[in-house]
Amino acid sequence: MTLETVSTSKAHGGTLGVYKHESTSTGTGMTFSVFLPPQAVEGAKLPVLIYLSGLTCTHANVTDKGEYRRACAEHGIVFVAPDTSPRGEGVPDDADGAYDFGLGAGFYVNATQEPFAEQYRMWDYIADELPALLGANFPVDLDRMGITGHSMGGHGALTLGLTYPERFKSLSAFAPIVAPGQVPWGHKALGGYLGDDRGAWRKHDAVALIEDGKRPAGAVLVDQGDADGFLAEQLRPELLDAACNAAGVDLTLRLQPGYDHSYNFISTFMEDHIRWHAERL
Ligand SMILES: N[C@@H](CCC(=O)N[C@@H](CS)C(=O)NCC(=O)O)C(=O)O
């Protein structure tokens, strides 16, 4: 597992790095960023937070606009931002080049449908390969790992956190797709990657996972802007609220007045999410 360092730069007393490696999950090169806070001194093992990005993003969107570094430096959290899909020569994309499927839209599943099945293996990448890579190359304590994300990445965080509560000890999301089986983005992505078997979709649908008995490691924080243009059709946080209420899952769902779907919203509440994870890791 060789890592290539693309860049490093000092920030808030720590180091922001961008790294590349050849992924065994996707069979492609994958790029991610890591912020090491100043507490990352020789011999330290720090809690780590993985942030999964949304549609159209690479590692760079949250790295440039997420404004997480000051809070991570304060709380001693390592922040990791992976890409949202495999990329590179020969990696298939949406047939029409649409933004909501294919490149930049891996939806954090292992695809079973051709021509995506070989490389679109973002579930394995985030659940297994990336943590192992972090453990081998950075001063992280994998027993103190949390997960968060935005929109499609919020969906990834919720489904991974619900499926592997022993791995992801803290969980939050910004404007997540909570029930892809019930909304257009999810129908397209889960149908395209997993085929027509809706039973397979349920393993990648946070609301269905809760209905089917999965539980997160602890309480869950979700922030959602009420001026988000995707709220009513694609995100539908009320479905998560209802599932959590029925199942006794401790969900803090905050509807934030006036906020949209952008990084202006995410960066506003990022500090709260870093603190949420720091208190639980
Ligand atoms: N306006 C976008 C829709 C996709 C979108 O809003 N993507 C969100 C995540 S779901 C995002 O973070 N975009 C990148 C950014 O704002 O930097 C498009 O049509 O390309």
TrEMBL record:
<keyword id="KW-0378">Hydrolase</keyword>
<dbReference type="InterPro" id="IPR029058">
    <property type="entry name" value="AB_hydrolase_fold"/>
</dbReference>
<dbReference type="InterPro" id="IPR000801">
    <property type="entry name" value="Esterase-like"/>
</dbReference>
<dbReference type="GO" id="GO:0018738">
    <property type="term" value="F:S-formylglutathione hydrolase activity"/>
</dbReference>
<dbReference type="GO" id="GO:0005829">
    <property type="term" value="C:cytosol"/>
</dbReference>
<comment type="similarity">
    <text>Belongs to the esterase D family.</text>
</comment>
<dbReference type="Pfam" id="PF00756">
    <property type="entry name" value="Esterase"/>
</dbReference>
<comment type="function">
    <text>Serine hydrolase involved in the detoxification of formaldehyde.</text>
</comment>
<feature type="active site" description="Charge relay system">
    <location>
        <position position="261"/>
    </location>
</feature>
<dbReference type="GO" id="GO:0052689">
    <property type="term" value="F:carboxylic ester hydrolase activity"/>
</dbReference>
<dbReference type="InterPro" id="IPR014186">
    <property type="entry name" value="S-formylglutathione_hydrol"/>
</dbReference>
<feature type="active site" description="Charge relay system">
    <location>
        <position position="228"/>
    </location>
</feature>
<dbReference type="GO" id="GO:0046294">
    <property type="term" value="P:formaldehyde catabolic process"/>
</dbReference>
<protein>
    <recommendedName>
        <fullName>S-formylglutathione hydrolase</fullName>
        <ecNumber>3.1.2.12</ecNumber>
    </recommendedName>
</protein>
<feature type="active site" description="Charge relay system">
    <location>
        <position position="151"/>
    </location>
</feature>
<keyword id="KW-0719">Serine esterase</keyword>
